[in-house]
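Can you give me the bound-state structure? Components:
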Amino acid sequence: MSPFHRVQEPSAPRIYSFDQPGSVPGTLHIRADAAPPRLILIDYQAQQAIRRQLDQAQDCAPYLDSESVSWIDVQGLGSAETLQQLGQVFQLHSLVLEDVVNVPQRPKVENYGDHLLVVTQMSTLTTVTVAGQPPSRQTAAGAIHPGLEIEQVSFILGKNYLLTVQEEPLHDCFAPVRDRIHYARGMIRQQGADYLLYALIDALIDGFFPILEAYGEEIEALEDEVIEHPTPQTLARIHQIKRDLLTLRRAIWPQRELLSTLTRDNCDQISKEVQLYLRDCYDHAIQVLDMVETYRELAASLMDVYLSAVSNRMNEVMKTLTVISTIFIPLTFIAGIYGMNFNPQASPWNMPELNWYWGYPLVWSAMIAIALSLISFFWLRGWFSDFSRVHRGR
Amino acid sequence: MSPFHRVQEPSAPRIYSFDQPGSVPGTLHIRADAAPPRLILIDYQAQQAIRRQLDQAQDCAPYLDSESVSWIDVQGLGSAETLQQLGQVFQLHSLVLEDVVNVPQRPKVENYGDHLLVVTQMSTLTTVTVAGQPPSRQTAAGAIHPGLEIEQVSFILGKNYLLTVQEEPLHDCFAPVRDRIHYARGMIRQQGADYLLYALIDALIDGFFPILEAYGEEIEALEDEVIEHPTPQTLARIHQIKRDLLTLRRAIWPQRELLSTLTRDNCDQISKEVQLYLRDCYDHAIQVLDMVETYRELAASLMDVYLSAVSNRMNEVMKTLTVISTIFIPLTFIAGIYGMNFNPQASPWNMPELNWYWGYPLVWSAMIAIALSLISFFWLRGWFSDFSRVHRGR
Amino acid sequence: MSPFHRVQEPSAPRIYSFDQPGSVPGTLHIRADAAPPRLILIDYQAQQAIRRQLDQAQDCAPYLDSESVSWIDVQGLGSAETLQQLGQVFQLHSLVLEDVVNVPQRPKVENYGDHLLVVTQMSTLTTVTVAGQPPSRQTAAGAIHPGLEIEQVSFILGKNYLLTVQEEPLHDCFAPVRDRIHYARGMIRQQGADYLLYALIDALIDGFFPILEAYGEEIEALEDEVIEHPTPQTLARIHQIKRDLLTLRRAIWPQRELLSTLTRDNCDQISKEVQLYLRDCYDHAIQVLDMVETYRELAASLMDVYLSAVSNRMNEVMKTLTVISTIFIPLTFIAGIYGMNFNPQASPWNMPELNWYWGYPLVWSAMIAIALSLISFFWLRGWFSDFSRVHRGR
Amino acid sequence: MSPFHRVQEPSAPRIYSFDQPGSVPGTLHIRADAAPPRLILIDYQAQQAIRRQLDQAQDCAPYLDSESVSWIDVQGLGSAETLQQLGQVFQLHSLVLEDVVNVPQRPKVENYGDHLLVVTQMSTLTTVTVAGQPPSRQTAAGAIHPGLEIEQVSFILGKNYLLTVQEEPLHDCFAPVRDRIHYARGMIRQQGADYLLYALIDALIDGFFPILEAYGEEIEALEDEVIEHPTPQTLARIHQIKRDLLTLRRAIWPQRELLSTLTRDNCDQISKEVQLYLRDCYDHAIQVLDMVETYRELAASLMDVYLSAVSNRMNEVMKTLTVISTIFIPLTFIAGIYGMNFNPQASPWNMPELNWYWGYPLVWSAMIAIALSLISFFWLRGWFSDFSRVHRGR
Amino acid sequence: MSPFHRVQEPSAPRIYSFDQPGSVPGTLHIRADAAPPRLILIDYQAQQAIRRQLDQAQDCAPYLDSESVSWIDVQGLGSAETLQQLGQVFQLHSLVLEDVVNVPQRPKVENYGDHLLVVTQMSTLTTVTVAGQPPSRQTAAGAIHPGLEIEQVSFILGKNYLLTVQEEPLHDCFAPVRDRIHYARGMIRQQGADYLLYALIDALIDGFFPILEAYGEEIEALEDEVIEHPTPQTLARIHQIKRDLLTLRRAIWPQRELLSTLTRDNCDQISKEVQLYLRDCYDHAIQVLDMVETYRELAASLMDVYLSAVSNRMNEVMKTLTVISTIFIPLTFIAGIYGMNFNPQASPWNMPELNWYWGYPLVWSAMIAIALSLISFFWLRGWFSDFSRVHRGR
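Here's the bound-state model for the whole set.
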């Protein structure tokens, strides 16, 4: 399935999941539109790997006792019954089940002695089309822009097993890891469940990079657009990018903490060697954060540039108006003067110019002189410099 | 009672309660409009639960010695006498009573050996109608906006009892917990007073989420409004949201510290198991803070967008003026020229054009040529691009 | 004496006192306008309290040896001689005397073994009238605004005595404490000099609250004003408030540190019980800081709102101009056309319209049609929406 | 080779290198345009120094065992095979090789027991020509502006050897160090591989200073330009500088951390004496950071100044328009009045002025009076003050 | 010599001194315009003090071994030879000499066992005249503004000696200390070299205060100017002040750290008693930082105020234009109507008004009615309120 899909409206920052205030702790919320859960079991050891889709939670029980590594992947949160059965099979604390099911939660790691709960967030790149914007040549950034979807993935790491719970079956960043197990690529088949946890988190963190790349390109396109031909859509896009980067930071920041905890603390479930790999993964999380912060600062600066560019354009418009107006207003006044109907016969003082031999040419000369002096006044002030610039299709 | 009620004016950030400088420590301030205190006792153990409304503070004394958990809930701070009696019954330090009565105080936890004082703040969602704003189609965000009320709730946790003191009886987020005790839902009846403390604080913290949700929706509505048709009311709303978020942060930030202290430190009054639950509550407080900070950044960005959008609109207005003016001003000048009354008979140089056979059509041709060249000049500069955009009901 | 007095000009942030660079440490600076020092001795124990005004510093020596608590309050820094005598009587280090006399210093606490130096800053509310602003109906915030004065108060705590040094005798926040000693209110007469130190610092910190309240009201008034009818005075007021809040923060921030040190460290001079009271005082200092930060953010947001509001008003002015101009400019052009004097007799092409039977009514019809189409154009753009708003007395 | 070269377009902030999400850790990415690696070996001790270009990675193996210091410098990342051979010769962990080859990584130091990995970033100054900007006299900052290139340099320090890996052979800041070895300048020949590491990092950090100098000069030029004659290009330049400084900070900040780690921690590979030198290098990194932060603040302030300067110029343009318009509009109205064709013979009330003896001179007097009073009105408002300023070639 | 001198151009922030990247550590850079070094020796003990100007560095050797305190003050960095001789006499590490000579370095303290290196920065107040600004009455802040020069002063403290190295002989803040030694003021003659170090650093830190005072006054003057009559020069001044305050902060911040290190750590070279004095000096450094931060915030707020004030003035200009234009444009249109030459004889519909008995007075009445209704419209909108304000000489 393609990792890109279309959404019509940019999604607002999702609020964290919360209970009805005062409700009993451990209550599960099943959303009406949640997909029914699919349970996929992969059981492997160095020599072989089995993959099965399970019908119900109890079916995975026999695999848990064996020496081989069992990975139970739950995709979809649509059935409270199945999820509670899972809780019983894996003997999960009611607070653990709540954190896994009531999405989204803030990423965190918690050690419950016999199992380790890791709550993470996965990002998926989507594309948004800004409403009412024609795919015209005006928008250098194009009519299709990057969008963002954040989804919770929970891990429960036990002795020989790893339980993963994903919100939706569609956005699956685990496929390459499944292939590595299936084709025995790398050393994943030689390692335990903790290495599998690492491999999956690593895939998840690395999934942020292509998204950042898309935002980087968008920012670059906006940088050109904002200087060349800022439009109200540009403004909306900058604000949207700031919002998405805020969402990304909110997702990645606690994951950085989480990875720091995993590499620093001694958990029985994670071996020294895998901690070394997780440290590499932690470095990647810091790199993601670094990029997010860089882009945030660039987007903030872009907003300033936008405001200045709009002022600049207004300045240019004002100058055009001023130049035309101030040249013609005095001339029109003069023309108005000699359009007056004072009766020259009533008095020699009444508009004798009208009967002068050179009257009309003199008036023209005066008007041309006034126009030229005003033009040179503006020229000296440098107001024409803008007009001489090359205007590229604006 | 409905948790929503109407207020006419957005409330300003309330200042912390303070003594008349130099007054004796422990002085109680009873506000004139404070509700008279209602004392509600709930005494429960696994098998049964009693609920009684007490007439005076001394009535609760017999319950305190029993093994069952006694919850005394004081609603309203209107009587200094009753409150001082409570202080005597529970043997509270004068500074404790001051913190409980002189609201609001900054949330904090203090350990007095035999009892633990926890001061918290509860938020209630209200709705505000912005003055002078008709419920017209102009305001996408609607004429009813979220408002905020913050109220102090103090907890005094002793061996077998919990004393809670609320400012007002109306906004009661404790009702669901009372029901859980009454109907023995969950394991609350099996647990001690410390679990009750947790259950109440949890209800209080979770009460912030619906409020955040309302603000999130308001921000989203404003995001559309600010790009589509910014008005001065939009500006007032953004500022109001920033103020409310500031108030929320001021309420939740010290509660996060407080919960951190409760889960980290060893208090005799709180068992290990309840600390686990409080840690979950602490996670929720962090989530609230996360959301508040996210919304604060969005609101700040909205203010920038607003300023830019207003500049954009002014730009558009300027362009209209400039286009019309600069086209007609030269034409009017030409018309003025030939409205002059120079006497053609006085000289062959005096406006001979007036007597030309093609004079009038020539002038029209000149004027049309000027108009077309100006229009094409503006076209090349892209000044008409704005007019071709779809204007949705602006 | 009233705690409020008038000053004509808002005072700029006062720079810290400094020596002529390179001068001998311990040099005292006596300002020319400093009030001559008044020495007031209050000597009390549980049974009785004496109050005397001393003529010279040596007079307090006999009281220092007694078991009773001696409070020597020095008001005014106008005499180097008296201050040096005090230094000798109390055996103060030259750096201590310098800190006490050369005001203002940054608040701090320093332990000199046998005595403890506490330097604090007291704030006094003043009122300022903004120059050139008539007390007209334009200013919702009124013509009288809160102002701020900061003054140093130093404490030197010894075994049985407390020496306090105030800059000016006028702003006295210690009067209520004197009354408590005199009338034996509370338990102050039962306690030692350390409790007196607490009582005075508590009065001093609580003195910040009414000031904050005044600023809170001013900000609220400005919030209305800035949306309704922003004027340049509004701008000056916002800047003034930001400056005052900066000054307040500079005063309260080090006092928070100072109180933290007093409650945390073990000083021989301060008993465990008084430390409990000082912790309460520390909470108040944090509350003051909280309020100051909140107001600072509000003031910063107000500045943004101001800028936007001014842009809004300019937009409105521009629209009025544009609407009137763009309607009448084409019409005037048409009128100008038919004001031309082309000779209809010279050619049938020369303005035959002038002789048409329906010429004049046709021109009127054309002009009305043009005006109506322009008006409907503006209507569709929503430019009239602003005019339909209620303008309250602007 | 000259350290300056031309690029046509300012480069956007480069994203950190990342794996295809889910791929096997340790995968090497070889970019198509990467230069083929050149291996240069320098083997030296106090008495002599050898320099050889190696054909393949295995050739350096014999030098590693000797007592002399072996520096293997790899320039270019174009061949996966060669790089994997290097990994085998030096027995590098697969994650190390990944960090060295998949550029750029965030600077860091990692200790792998027998060797130490140091990843750093080198900056190179380039020049950019802003598109479409003629090298006219308008741009005080000139048409050639500083640009920035960041490139990764990795160091692997073993017992007697140092392996350095550079992205490109062109930008070589190591030449002076090679000369110091060749000509035995300073004490480099007497020292071990750790001193060589210091010498190279020192050269790399010092390489930031000339770049900062170029940016400092650019900012200074822009400061003049922004006040004197701001253009849209100025805006683009300020944004570009902010972006470059952000990139610089992103490069230098982790290097500061890295140097702090090297000087603080005990690594077996680095002697106490060399740590002293590294501390000096750490000071330089802090100085670079200091300058970057200073320039960032200046650039942010410049953006504000730009916006204000544009507003100022618009103000000036507006005043010109207003002065001319408001003087001539009333005059033109008066001229229009007496251009009306009311028939004086139809009524004595119809424009009798036209037949007055002094009619025409009276109208002129009235118009001159109006013009003078308007001019003096503007004069009193100070609107002419701007025109009297010296306009230097604007 | 006067501590004030004139410079023509405000100096840009000086970059830290740096080596040619890759050069041998310890290389000395002698600038061409550096003054030749003057060596002044002051050797003192309680009874006597000697002052001599030395010809060469070796001359001070005999004084170093005696029990008396020897202060060698080097003014000017113009001779590499003399400085290297000094390095030999005092046995300085090559990195020490580099830090002392290659100015400026970031202030720091480093302990080399037998001697202590302290690098500090001294500030000098200069005055700048802004180019092209006449000393007119327009600038309330006056035409002379404070400027800033920062200069490095290095201290090397040994057992009985103190070596100080200053960049330039002119700006000497050490003169008062020399006088204190000469005239035996205070207790400096009784103390060791560590007290001398304190006395000099104290003089240096206190030298920041008069500079801050000058900037405080400048900010105050600008506060008035920015509200009353903002000019482009005002903008340039605000930016200049922000730049200078940035430079000041960059100078004082590391000196605060440095003093904190000196008072906290145990250096053999500094006695407990002098540490007490240094703590006082540390307090002063914090006060300087406090003031710098306060002024920085004020300057940032001033920039906002400036922008708003410029918008305000544009608003005022716009209103004038709008009022005049919108009143006269309709009137001119009406006059234009009756200036048309439709032939009344061709048709009874052609402008019969021209022949009406009351035609001309009716037109005048209509025009006056229109003007009055427009004026009252503007009056209701409050657009005249600005004109009624007192304009003080603008």
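A couple of observations. The interface with chain D takes residues 339 of chain C (CB under 8 Å). The first helix of chain C runs from residue 61 to 65.
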